[in-house]
Specification:
The protein has 218 residues and is an alpha/beta fold. The protein has two domains: 116 residues, Rossmann fold; 91 residues, Arc Repressor Mutant, subunit A (Orthogonal Bundle). The chain has eight helices and eleven strands. The strands form three sheets. It has a five-stranded parallel sheet, with helices on both faces. Strand 7 and strand 8 form a beta hairpin. Helix 2 packs parallel to helix 3 and helix 6 crosses helix 8. The radius of gyration is 18 Å and the shape is elongated. The protein starts with a strand and ends with a strand. InterPro entries: CheY-like_superfamily (IPR011006), OmpR/PhoB-type_DNA-bd (IPR001867), Sig_transdc_resp-reg_receiver (IPR001789), WalR-like (IPR039420), WH-like_DNA-bd_sf (IPR036388). It holds the Pfam family Response_reg.
Length: 218
């Protein structure tokens, strides 16, 4: 699940991004509406956290632009204007949910996950393949009845591979889905993380690698 945080308050945006990354979500930041619009053109996001009072391009205009996209992300408006009338007008613009500032971070996490599940192409909550059962909401992963203890990135890689199953994901695709725009594309971080994940999954191996193509669950 990749998130775009469009928020002009730099300090708040960094706090939100850090908290979401701790939950295993790759996050990109935009402090200006025009920058956010440009990022939406090059990256597929699942959820956009949208501040209503953005400079450059107002959040209301950006929200309407998002709703016109064919494969649009879900939109959660974040704003200090939290009166009932403000919430109604935000939803009329096409926002899928609305959360007033200040907010409790656990509630924000729950709302993001709920929005991701509501996407038209969302899959069932529990992902199953090759003896693995993974629940992204409860953050649990089991293989053949054995509880797996995974790091945030290992969990996210396994989730991405299960969502793509039986197809392949290249290292570049994993880097985009699990990390974020700040990740160095020339590092071996994907290889290292997949290697650790393989060891924790145990035998028989279920992550296959095809050179030049990528990884998949078999």
């Amino acid at each position: 699940m990749r998130i775009l945080v469009a928020e002009d308050d730099h300090a708040l945006a960094e706090v939100i991004a850090e908290g979401l990354r701790d939950q295993g979500m790759p996050v990109d930041l935009a402090h200006d509406g025009l920058i956010a619009a440009a990022q939406l053109d090059v990256t597929a996001y699942d959820v956009v956290l949208l501040d209503r009072d953005l400079p450059g391009l107002h959040g209301d205009v950006l929200c309407q632009m998002i709703t016109e996209r064919a494969d649009r992300p879900m939109v959660l408006m974040l704003t200090a204007a939290s009166a009932p009338g403000d919430r109604v007008s935000g939803l009329v613009l096409g926002a899928d949910d609305y959360l007033g500032k200040p907010f409790h971070f656990p509630e924000l996490i729950l709302r993001i996950r709920a929005l991701a599940r509501r996407r038209p192409d969302a899959r069932p909550r529990t992902l199953r393949a090759a003896g693995i059962e993974l629940d992204p909401v409860r953050r649990t992963a089991v293989r053949d009845g054995r509880q797996l203890t995974l790091s945030v990135k290992e969990f996210a890689v396994l989730e991405a591979l299960l969502r793509a199953c039986p197809g392949f994901l290249s290292a570049e695709a994993l880097l985009e889905r699990v990390w974020d725009e700040n990740a160095d594309p020339f590092t071996n971080t994907v290889t290292v993380t997949v290697g650790r994940l393989r060891r924790k999954l145990g035998e028989p191996p279920i992550i296959a690698t095809t050179p030049g193509i990528g990884y998949r669950i078999v």
